[in-house]
């Protein structure tokens, strides 16, 4: 594999040329990694809703042409200057956020929001020289979230690459590099429900179901799924959800419904929709005195969270989280080990699989609401 080290590699990549148009498989040139970068051969990638959101480009700065993709698993092909923690042949998960290990956030036990490598949705180039490593006929193709995994080879900053157990199946653990850890960590690292407690999960997409999996693993006795799509309820039972509330079935606010059926409110809630009304409901449905609500979903930029201050004075706690409070390099290898030890189940999140040549089918499945995760096989 290292035979191409230092050379440009020509490979297939799925290029988003413009917003909302099907991706096109193109031959792209992938430059060798520069200082503190690694070039990775992607073996499996999966489609996350964030990819679709930026492909549609309805609410942000459109950056095109671009190679999307950020949930993936692969093998290091070559490393750039200064890279000592990774070597060719290492099995890795690329991550949309990073860990420089030197900033105040990385040195803090409480934060995973690296100053250097935290998520940047607008940047389409590498940090080292503000240039793209992808090109077609000499014209740059932009990066996405520093990962761009919809390519057979990609170049990523070393601080955004987690080295994992080489025995872990990359076609399963690739989903840990974004959606699974975001939801699972929100529950186990931030909400921290006690055994026997009650937890409400708002939004039963892939992230919400990962949050439910976190509640199941934590030993919660009641896991209440809240969603306006009743077709999600049957599937959610596999993830430990014990009962369901559809806000559309009730005239009163859903937080009042939950308070009634739980004798005053749930012990913990996790909000995974990004809808500000759901966020308010998730906070107001927790029990006074000890209830904790955790916000995961990303709201519209004009959204405003409104609640009465008395809700805080009555000892309810509101928290936010980013990537489930996992530090990518330090924590991801351990989460992979939990899967290897059969403490976690990933297979139930994977509903579809397609070859790379049919990547647009993955978008169709997600847009129709048919898939949780669709694995895309690069070979």
Short characterization:
Residues 35-164 form the Alcohol dehydrogenase-like N-terminal domain. By secondary structure, this protein is an alpha/beta fold.
Explained architecture:
- Residues 35-164 form the Alcohol dehydrogenase-like N-terminal domain.
- Belongs to the zinc-containing alcohol dehydrogenase family.
- It is an enzyme of class 1 (oxidoreductase).
- The chain is α/β, with parallel strands linked by helices and 379 residues long.
- Helix 4 (179-191) packs across helix 5 (206-218).
- The strands form three sheets. Strands 3, 4, 5, 8, 9, 16 and 17 form a seven-stranded mixed sheet that branches. Strands 12-11-10-13-14-15 form a six-stranded parallel sheet, with helices on both faces. It has a four-stranded antiparallel sheet with strand order 1-2-6-7, with no helix packed on it.
- Among the domains are: 193-324, NAD(P)-binding Rossmann-like Domain (Rossmann fold, 3-Layer(aba) Sandwich); 346-378, no CATH class.
- It is built from eleven helices and 17 strands.
- The protein is globular, with a radius of gyration of 21 Å.
- It has helices spanning 49-56, 104-107, 170-173, 179-191, 206-218, 233-236, 254-261, 276-284, 310-313, 328-340, 359-367, and strands at 9-15, 24-30, 37-46, 71-79, 91-94, 134-136, 139-141, 153-157, 161-163, 198-202, 222-226, 243-245, 268-271, 292-295, 317-320, 350-355, 373-377.
């Amino acid at each position: 594999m290292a035979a191409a080290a230092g050379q440009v590699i020509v490979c297939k990549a799925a290029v988003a040329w413009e917003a909302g148009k099907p991706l096109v498989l193109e031959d792209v040139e992938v430059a060798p990694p520069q200082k503190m970068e690694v070039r990775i051969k992607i073996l499996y990638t999966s489609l996350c809703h964030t990819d679709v959101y930026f492909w549609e480009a309805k609410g942000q700065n459109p950056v095109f042409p671009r190679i999307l993709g950020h949930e993936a698993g692969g093998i290091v092909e070559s490393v750039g200057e200064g890279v000592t923690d990774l070597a060719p042949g290492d099995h890795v998960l690329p991550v949309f956020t990073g860990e420089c290990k030197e900033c105040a956030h990385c040195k803090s036990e409480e934060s995973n929001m690296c100053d250097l490598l935290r998520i940047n949705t607008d940047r389409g180039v590498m940090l080292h020289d503000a240039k793209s490593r992808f090109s077609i006929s000499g014209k740059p193709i932009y990066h996405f979230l520093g990962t761009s995994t919809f390519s057979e080879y990609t170049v990523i900053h070393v601080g955004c690459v987690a080295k994992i157990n080489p025995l872990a199946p990359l076609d399963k653990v690739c989903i840990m590099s974004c959606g699974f850890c975001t939801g699972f960590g929100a529950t186990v690292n931030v909400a921290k429900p006690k055994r026997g407690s009650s937890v409400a999960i708002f939004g039963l997409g892939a992230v919400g179901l990962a949050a439910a999996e976190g509640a199941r693993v934590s030993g919660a006795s009641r896991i209440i799924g809240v969603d306006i799509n009743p077709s999600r309820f049957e599937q959610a039972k596999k993830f430990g959800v014990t009962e369901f509330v559809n806000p559309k079935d009730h005239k009163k606010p859903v937080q009042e419904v939950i308070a009634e059926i739980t004798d005053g409110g749930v012990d913990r809630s996790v909000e995974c929709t990004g809808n500000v009304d759901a966020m308010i409901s998730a906070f107001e449905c927790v029990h006074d005195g000890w209830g904790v609500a955790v916000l995961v979903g990303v709201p519209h930029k004009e959204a405003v969270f409104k609640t009465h201050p008395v809700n805080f004075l009555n000892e309810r706690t509101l928290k936010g989280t980013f990537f489930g409070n996992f530090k990518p390099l330090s924590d991801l290898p351990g989460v992979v080990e939990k899967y290897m030890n059969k403490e976690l189940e990933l297979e139930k999140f994977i509903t579809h699989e397609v070859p790379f040549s049919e990547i647009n089918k993955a978008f169709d499945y997600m847009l129709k609401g048919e898939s949780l995760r669709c694995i895309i096989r690069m070979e």
